[in-house]
Amino acid sequence: MPVRKATTVWENDLMSGNGKVRVASNALPEFPVSWKGRTEQGAALTSPEELVAAAHASCFAMAFSANLSRKGSIPKKLTVTAETSFDKVGEGWKVTKSVLNVVGNVPGLDGAKFEEYAKEAEHSCPISNALRNNVEITVNAKLE
């Protein structure tokens, strides 16, 4: 499997500085990051935590789709939103939570099975497994 790569160039100190992130695949445009982007709601900048949320949402969507398919329930659509929390813990900062909210359209599947399969899939998501035992992970699943 290929190794994935991203590069950040940071200038100046933490509080007044900023950086630019580029992914090697060029699938995304170069984008800015800053402390303000990490700590202020609504800042028009991204943060490492938002990138973790993006990685977690996309990874879980793939894992859940695979889990449903293995069980004979092909999803028409899964919409996954991940919300990561970045909090002051003691003297430092930490990603403390990742909440996965999934809404699905899966013909022939009832809500209870959808929830059960979602929770199973979270354990087969490589990003969840990278975060596990360090970040609280919650899955909320419902059918459309």
Overall average pLDDT: 94
At CATH level 2, the architecture of the largest domain is 2-Layer Sandwich
User: Helix fraction?
Assistant: 25-40%
Number of helices: 4
Q: Give the N-terminus to C-terminus distance in angstroms.
A: 35 Å
Shape: elongated
| The CATH topology of the largest domain | GMP Synthetase, Chain A, domain 3
Number of extended strands: 6
Provide the number of structural domains. 2
Rg result: 17 Å
Strand order of the largest sheet: 1-2-3
Q: List segments where confidence is low: pLDDT < 50 over at least 5 consecutive residues.
A: none
Summarize the biggest pleated sheet: 3 strands, antiparallel
Q: Proportion of β residues?
A: 25-35%
Commentary on this structure:
This protein has 144 residues and is α+β, with helices and mostly antiparallel strands. The chain contains four helices and six strands, in the order βββααββααβ. The strands form two sheets. A three-stranded antiparallel beta sheet has the order 1-2-3. Helix 2 crosses helix 3. The longest helix is centred in the middle third of the chain and has 23 residues, at 48-70. The mean pLDDT is 94.
